[in-house]
Design a protein that fits this description.
Elements (H helix, E strand, L loop, with lengths): L1 H23 L1 H10 L1 H13 L5 H26 L4 H26 L25 H18 L3 H4 L14 H13 L13 E3 L3 H6 L4 E4 L4 E5 L4 H14 L6 H13 L4 H18 L3 H10 L2 H16 L2 E7 L5 E8 L1 H20 L6 H4 L1 H19 L1
Parallel strand pairs: 1-3
Antiparallel strand pairs: 2-3, 4-5
């Protein structure tokens, strides 16, 4: 009991100190992200990255089973332990406290502290915050520039990529190989991203649950793994793998992860990663345009292939909330089809969205809106480049 109390005191005390220090000092968080965190990525991240499957899935299963077994064991002990129940309850509470405080400390070391570091664009913008007024002309300039760039990269889209019989993009390369290579290549020009990039892991056991929860990817801090949903649409998979790998560089903010993932995909030279990255960027750019007529015009300017893949994405995610029932006639033929809302999937999606929103707020972000704030970073950086090129001309 005494040893357990010492462990609890150390882990809980360190967790509290690190949490307060990182919240109060961005300089401390930045120092940690640049000097300590890379060592964890190079050891823990690389070790768990050796396994071809997602260790996170088995970790979660083990934790759940251990928690249930521990609870059952404690209850049985309490029932049988007449005269010792206070001692048993105290012992069980200390063990539970040790587990929770140890996991909290591990989370802080592999993820939490980095939430409070300086932003990726800190050197370009004194505060690292992007705050500017953009006009409709600015938005159209950036969109037109990216569209021209896309058309230059994909002059013959239909023959540069692979599509199924319905004209939907098919991922043929292994993103567990191409995504780390793309991140390593991009990090050559961005020293702040220098890291060891293990393979991103496809989630298989929990893929259906992830899909019902509308989760495309997740960084799991306890094994330092970048995970992506193995059954999500192919067109989303590449940029998602990049997004989760960004977290392994110590940048935890979702807007920055999206922005860096796009930039890494754009510069990767891998056509499938580039396509996935541009699809995400165009989607968020158009969604971020407040003028509806302008947004509609931008949408209509995009190639029909992008429209098809976006439609396939929407069909997949909306399909998780519905089940289709076929009415069979006496002759064995389908006479009617009924689409029924799935209340279980709907509840899972609502709970997932609410928890994610609450979690991001607790880490100093703007809830789930943080993901789409990537457009602010993209508009600011692209406008700066366009203005610089214009002044040089």
């Amino acid at each position: 009991m005494k040893k357990l109390l010492i462990i609890l005191s150390i882990t809980a005390g360190l967790s509290l100190i690190l949490a307060i220090a990182s919240r109060l000092s961005a300089s401390f968080s930045e120092w940690y992200a640049l000097n300590i965190y890379p060592a964890l990525t190079a050891t823990l991240g690389q070790f768990w990255g050796l396994f071809p499957f997602s260790v996170a899935e088995f970790y979660l299963i083990s934790v759940i089973l251990a928690a249930v077994a521990g609870l059952v064991f404690a209850v049985v002990k309490l029932i049988r332990g007449k005269g010792k129940r206070k001692r048993i309850a105290a012992f069980s509470g200390v063990i539970a406290g040790c587990v929770v405080s140890t996991m909290a400390l591990q989370f802080l070391l592999t993820c939490g502290i980095n939430y409070n570091r300086r932003t990726f664009l800190h050197s370009e913008y004194s505060s690292g915050a992007i705050s500017f007024e953009r006009t409709l002309q600015d938005e159209f300039r950036v969109f037109s520039h990216l569209l021209a760039e896309f058309e230059e990269v994909f002059p013959d889209l239909e023959n540069q990529l692979t599509f199924d019989e319905n004209g939907i993009f098919v991922q043929t390369s292994d993103v567990t190989v191409t995504a780390p290579a793309a991140m390593a290549k991009f990090a050559e020009s961005q020293p702040k991203l220098s890291s060891h990039f293990p393979r991103p892991k496809p989630v298989s056991l929990f893929a259906e649950l992830m899909s019902d929860a509308f989760i495309i990817g997740i960084y799991f801090p306890f094994t330092m793994e970048a995970n992506f949903n193995s059954i999500a649409p192919d067109s989303e998979r590449g940029v998602t793998a990049l997004h989760e790998l960004v977290h392994l560089t110590g940048f935890m903010r979702e807007d920055e992860a999206n922005f860096i993932a796009f930039a890494a995909g754009r510069e990767s030279g891998d056509s499938e990663l580039m396509y996935s990255a541009y699809l995400m960027a165009f989607d968020m750019l158009i969604a971020g345009v407040k003028h509806k007529e302008m947004a509609r015009a931008m949408y209509n300017m995009l190639p029909e292939q992008i429209h098809r893949d976006w439609a396939a994405q929407r069909a997949f995610w909306r399909g998780r909330l519905r089940t289709v029932e076929h009415i069979i006639g006496d002759d064995g033929e389908v006479v009617d089809t009924i689409v029924v809302e799935d209340p279980v999937a709907g509840a899972i999606q609502d709970a997932s969205s609410s928890l994610n929103n609450l979690w991001l707020w607790s880490q100093g972000q703007d809830g789930t809106v943080s993901y789409s704030r990537m457009v602010d970073l993209l508009f600011a950086t692209e406008l700066a480049k366009l203005n610089e090129n214009q002044s040089e001309e």
